[in-house]
Specification:
The structure is a single chain. The chain has about 775 residues and is α/β, with parallel strands linked by helices. The chain folds into 5 domains: about 230 residues, Spore Coat Polysaccharide Biosynthesis Protein SpsA, Chain A; about 45 residues, no CATH class; about 100 residues, Nuclear Transport Factor 2, Chain: A, CATH 3.10.450; about 50 residues, no CATH class; about 250 residues, Spore Coat Polysaccharide Biosynthesis Protein SpsA, Chain A (Alpha-Beta Complex). It is built from 26 helices and 28 strands. It is globular, with a radius of gyration of 37 Å. The structure holds 2-acetamido-2-deoxy-beta-D-glucopyranose (4 copies). The site of one 2-acetamido-2-deoxy-beta-D-glucopyranose (NAG) has 3 residues, from loops. It is an enzyme of class 2 (transferase). Pfam families: CHGN. Its EC number is 2.4.1.-. It comes from Priapulus caudatus. Keywords: Golgi apparatus, Membrane, Signal-anchor, Transferase, Transmembrane, Transmembrane helix.
C-alpha cells in the first residue's frame, strides 16, 4: 500500500513539477519577448566616453548623413580618417537608420532624410550638447563627403582657446540672387555647411538652450544659414571672417556637374597639402585614394626622420671614434661631390630639362617631359618654395615662384637624385621699405634614397603571409637582386625558393599551353626543344606544347621536326606534345589561331617563338601574371646583340640569360610573346587573320586587349626570357630601299652604340676607308 501511495505521490509530484516547469517557461518566454521587444524599440544609449585617454578628448565630429549613404560614404569616412581623429565621431541620420556595418550611428528621433536637413543639424547639435559637452573641447559639424586630416586639424585646434566663443568655417553671405531673402543683413555671415563648421565648447554651450527656438524660427531653406543665425543671436558671434579659412577648410569649387571629378588627379598640390579638410568627395574610392596618399606622405616623413637620425648617429660615431658600425648609404650627408668615377661607364649622366627633356639613355633622346618627370619637378619646386618662405614672416617678405628656366636631374645610386634647377621668382618685401623684384636662383637639391622596405600582406590564395622566414627571405632575395642589378622580377615573382608552402604548388599546377609557329629552321628548333626539355619536361612542369608547322621551300625539315617531337613524346609520355600541320605559306596570325583552337576556353595559352630561351622562373611568372578574365601578360623580351661583338675579347662562358648593359636590349615595341587565357583571346576578338607573314598581328592583338578594357595588361621587362641572337639574312634580290632597311635592322643588332664605339676606338683603321671621304664635321666647319 505504502509502496502504491508513494508511487502515486511520485507521479503527482512529477505532474506538478511538469506543470510548474511549463508555466515558468511560458511566463519566462512571454517576459523575455517583452524584454526583446523593448530592446528593439529603445535606441542604444550613446557611449559615455568616460574612459577616453586625454589625447582623445579634443574633438567630437558629428557627420550629417542619410540612410542611403550609411553603407558607402559613412563607412568610407569611418574606415579612413575617422580612425585617426583626436577624439570621436558619429553619423547622424534619420530615425530608424541602420547599417550593415559596425559604425557609430545616431538615428535621430522624429528626423527624416528630407532636404533641407535643418532639423537633423539642430538635433545633432543638441545631442552633442546633451551627451558630450563636458567630454570634448571642440565640436564639428561635417558632411559625409569631407576628408579631415586629423593631425593637421589637431595642431590647428590646439592652437586656439576653446573657452572663448568661436564659430569657425568658410564664411558665406549667400548667393547673389538670394541677397536680402535669407533674413541676414549685408554685414552678417554664416559658416558654409559643405566644408564643415567648428564650434568651440563655449559656443555650443551658449546656443544649446535655444535650439528649439531657432528650429521654430526659420527664415530660409538653408541649414547653414539658420545655424549661423542661431549662433549670431545666442552666442553673439559670427563665422570667422578670416580669409585663411579658405585654405584651412579647402573646398574644390567646381561646378555641380564636375563634383565627381574632384581629387582624381595629382594630389601633390600646395592647396591639398596645406588644407586641414578637403571637400567634396562624391565618389568613395577617391576618398580611399586620398587616405592612402596622406598615409604615404606620413610614411615619407617618417623615413626622412629615420634618415636624419641615422646621419646624426653616424656623426656621433665619428666624434667618438667608434668605427664598429657601418651605417651605410643612409649615413651619407647630402653633397655634390662623389667619389671619382671608376671609368667611362661610371659617370652620372644627367637629364636636361627645359621645354623638352633630353636624356642620354632614352631611345627617344629629345621628347616632351613625361608626367612623372613633371610631377617630380613640381614637388622639387614645392619643397624649394617651402624652404624659401620658412622665415617669411620674421623677415617681412614673401618669395613667389614664377617658373623653372631649365634644370638637370641625375641619379647617383649611393646618394640619391640630384637636381640642379634654375628658377625665376619674385621677391616681395612688405615690411619696412616695400619692394618687388624678380630674382633668379640656381638651386641644388638632393633627394636621398632610403632602404627598400616592403611587407607581404596576403597571398593570392587568401592565406595570411607567414611572418618571419618567408618575408625575410623575400627581402633578402630582393636585396640580392637589386645588388646584381636587373634581376628584380626574379626575386619578386615567386621564381625562387620556398616550394614547401601551398601557394607555390597551387600556382605551379596551372598548365601552360605553349603555341609555337614554325617553318623550317630545324637547328634552332632543336635548341628550343633542348631548353624546353630541361626547363619543363625534366622538371615535370605542367605544360603542353603545340608546334604549328608550315612547309618551308628552302629548308624543308618537316620530317626531322616531327621525329624530334615524337622522340620526346616517347621519353615523356605524360606530356602532351603535338605537331599540327598547317597549309599554305607561313603566316603567324593564322598559326597562333590554329594553335589556340587546339585547346579549350579555360586553357592558359602562351605564344612563343622558336628563337626564345627561357627559364623556370619565367614560366612561373607566366602563371602568376595570367589570370582568367583578369590579367594577360605581355613580357618585354631581352634581345641579344651579336655575341661575336659583345664577347669579342671575353672568354667567359656565355650564359644565354645574361642581362647586362651591353649584351642586348629590351624589345620595348615587341608584343609577340604573350600569355592569356583562351577565353580572353576570344573576348578580345582573336587574331586578325588578314595579316600575312610576320609582324603587326601582335600589335593588333595588344591594341584589342587595350581597347577591350576588361582585362589588365601586365607588361614588364622579364629577365627570364631572351631572344637568342641570329643573323638577319637580307635577300640580295630585295628592292634597294627594302634592302637598305633590312641592312639597317641587321646593323642595329650587332651591338650597343657604346660597344660599337669602343670597337672603333680600339681599331681606328676601320675608319680608314671613310677618311678618304671628307667627314661630315669638316664640311660644317667650312
Ligand atoms: C581661454 O579663454 C578663457 C576665457 O576667455 C580665459 O579665461 C583663459 O585664460 C584662456 N586660456 C588661455 C590658455 O589663454
Ligand atoms: C554682442 O557683441 C557686441 C559687440 O561685440 C556687444 O556690443 C553686445 O553687447 C553683445 N551682446 C550681448 C548680448 O552679449
Ligand atoms: C578640382 O576640380 C576640378 C574639376 O572641376 C579638377 O580639374 C581639379 O583637379 C580639382 N582639384 C583637385 C585637387 O582635385
Ligand atoms: C566585360 O566584363 C563585363 C562584366 O564582367 C561583362 O558583362 C562584359 O561582357 C565583358 N566584356 C567583354 C568584351 O568580355
Amino acid at each position: 500500500m505504502a509502496r502504491v501511495s508513494s508511487s502515486i505521490y511520485t507521479a503527482l509530484s512529477l505532474l506538478v513539477g511538469i506543470f510548474i516547469g511549463f508555466s515558468i517557461a511560458t511566463w519566462l518566454r512571454a517576459h523575455l519577448r517583452i524584454c526583446q521587444k523593448q530592446e528593439e524599440i529603445l535606441p542604444k544609449p550613446p557611449p559615455n566616453f568616460d574612459d577616453l585617454p586625454p589625447d582623445k578628448r579634443l574633438l567630437f565630429v558629428g557627420i550629417m548623413t542619410a540612410q542611403k549613404f550609411l553603407d558607402t560614404r559613412a563607412l568610407t569616412v569611418y574606415q579612413t580618417w575617422g580612425q585617426t581623429i583626436p577624439g570621436k565621431l558619429a553619423f547622424f541620420s534619420s530615425q530608424n537608420s541602420v547599417s550593415k556595418y559596425d559604425i557609430p550611428i545616431v538615428p535621430l528621433e522624429r528626423v527624416t532624410d528630407h532636404y533641407p536637413p535643418q532639423k537633423k543639424s539642430f538635433m545633432m547639435l543638441k545631442f552633442m550638447y546633451d551627451n558630450y559637452i563636458d567630454k570634448f573641447e571642440w565640436f564639428m559639424r561635417a558632411d559625409d563627403d569631407v576628408y579631415i586630416k586629423a593631425d593637421v586639424m589637431e595642431k590647428f585646434l590646439r592652437s586656439v582657446n576653446s573657452s572663448t566663443p568661436l564659430f569657425m568655417g568658410q564664411s558665406g553671405m549667400g548667393k547673389k540672387e538670394e541677397l536680402g531673402q535669407l533674413g541676414i543683413s549685408s554685414y552678417e555671415n554664416f559658416c558654409m555647411g559643405g566644408p564643415g563648421m567648428i564650434f568651440s565648447r563655449e559656443t555650443l554651450r551658449r546656443i544649446a538652450p535655444h535650439i528649439q527656438y531657432c528650429l521654430t524660427h526659420l527664415y530660409s531653406f538653408h541649414e547653414d544659414v539658420e545655424i549661423g543665425r542661431c549662433v549670431r543671436q545666442f552666442a553673439n558671434i559670427s563665422c570667422t571672417w578670416n580669409y585663411e579659412m579658405l585654405h584651412i577648410l579647402y573646398h574644390n569649387t567646381s561646378s555641380k556637374a564636375d563634383e565627381k571629378l574632384s581629387y582624381i588627379g595629382n594630389l601633390y598640390k600646395d592647396y591639398v597639402l596645406r588644407a586641414t579638410s578637403l571637400h567634396p568627395f562624391k565618389v568613395t574610392p577617391h576618398m580611399y585614394r586620398a587616405h592612402a596618399f596622406f598615409d604615404a606622405l606620413h610614411a615619407r616623413d617618417l623615413r626622412h626622420a629615420t634618415l636624419q637620425l641615422t646621419r646624426d648617429a653616424s656623426d656621433m660615431d665619428a666624434l667618438l671614434g667608434d668605427r664598429r658600425t657601418d651605417r651605410g648609404r643612409l649615413a651619407l650627408h647630402p653633397g655634390l661631390s662623389r667619389a671619382p668615377p671608376a671609368g667611362k661607364y661610371d659617370t652620372v649622366a644627367y637629364d636636361f630639362i627645359s621645354r623638352s627633356l633630353y636624356s642620354e639613355k632614352n631611345s627617344n633622346p629629345k621628347r616632351g617631359p613625361e608626367t612623372a618627370t613633371r610631377d617630380a619637378l613640381e614637388s622639387v619646386v614645392m619643397a624649394l618654395m617651402r624652404d624659401a618662405n620658412a622665415a617669411s614672416r620674421e623677415r617681412g617678405r614673401v618669395i613667389d615662384f614664377k617658373e623653372v628656366l631649365y634644370g638637370y636631374v641625375g641619379v647617383d645610386p649611393p646618394r640619391g637624385a640630384t637636381w640642379v634647377v634654375d628658377v625665376l621668382m619674385t621677391y616681395k618685401k612688405y615690411a619696412g621699405r616695400k619692394m618687388t623684384v624678380p630674382v633668379r636662383r640656381h638651386v641644388y637639391l638632393q633627394q636621398a634614397f632610403t632602404d627598400v622596405q616592403f611587407r607581404e600582406e596576403t597571398r593570392e590564395d587568401g592565406a595570411e603571409a607567414s611572418e618571419g622566414a618567408t618575408v625575410s627571405n623575400a627581402y633578402k632575395t630582393l636585396q640580392e637582386s637589386l645588388g646584381v642589378g636587373l634581376n628584380l622580377a626574379g626575386g619578386l615573382g615567386g621564381g625562387g625558393g620556398d616550394a614547401e608552402n601551398g601557394h607555390e604548388d597551387w600556382v605551379r599546377a596551372k598548365v601552360v599551353h605553349f603555341i609555337l609557329p614554325l617553318a623550317g629552321r630545324f637547328a634552332t628548333f632543336q635548341r628550343f626543344m633542348n631548353n624546353f626539355e630541361s626547363v619543363c619536361l625534366r622538371n615535370d612542369e605542367a605544360v603542353k606544347l603545340a608546334v604549328i608547322l608550315f612547309e618551308h621551300a628552302a629548308d624543308d625539315a618537316i620530317g626531322d621536326t616531327v621525329a624530334l617531337v615524337g622522340e620526346l613524346r616517347g621519353r615523356y609520355p605524360h606530356h602532351e606534345l603535338a605537331v599540327v600541320h598547317a597549309k599554305g605559306p607561313f603566316s603567324r596570325a593564322p598559326a597562333l589561331e590554329i594553335g589556340a583552337r587546339q585547346y579549350g576556353r579555360d586553357a592558359l595559352l602562351f605564344f612563343v617563338d622558336v628563337d626564345m630561351h627561357f627559364d623556370a622562373a619565367f614560366l612561373q611568372r607566366v602563371r602568376l601574371n595570367t589570370v582568367q578574365s583578369r590579367s594577360v601578360y605581355f613580357p618585354i623580351v631581352y634581345s641579344q646583340f651579336d655575341p661575336a661583338t659583345v664577347y669579342a675579347d671575353d672568354a667567359a662562358p656565355r650564359d644565354p640569360l645574361r642581362v647586362a648593359e651591353h649584351t642586348g636590349y629590351w624589345r620595348q615595341f615587341g608584343f609577340g610573346i604573350a600569355s592569356m587565357y583562351h577565353s580572353d583571346l576570344r573576348d578580345a576578338g582573336g587574331f586578325d587573320l588578314s595579316i600575312v607573314g610576320w609582324g603587326k598581328e601582335d600589335v593588333d592583338l595588344f591594341d584589342k586587349m587595350v581597347r577591350g578594357g576588361n582585362v589588365t595588361i601586365h607588361r614588364a621587362a622579364d629577365p627570364g626570357i631572351v631572344h637568342v641572337y641570329h643573323r638577319i639574312e637580307c635577300d640580295a634580290g630585295l628592292e634597294p630601299a627594302q634592302l637598305a632597311m633590312c641592312r639597317g635592322t641587321r646593323a642595329s643588332t650587332y651591338g650597343s652604340q657604346a660597344t660599337l664605339a669602343a670597337t672603333l676606338y680600339a681599331s681606328p683603321h676601320l675608319l680608314d676607308p671613310v677618311a678618304a671621304v671628307p667627314p661630315a664635321g669638316d664640311s660644317e666647319k667650312a
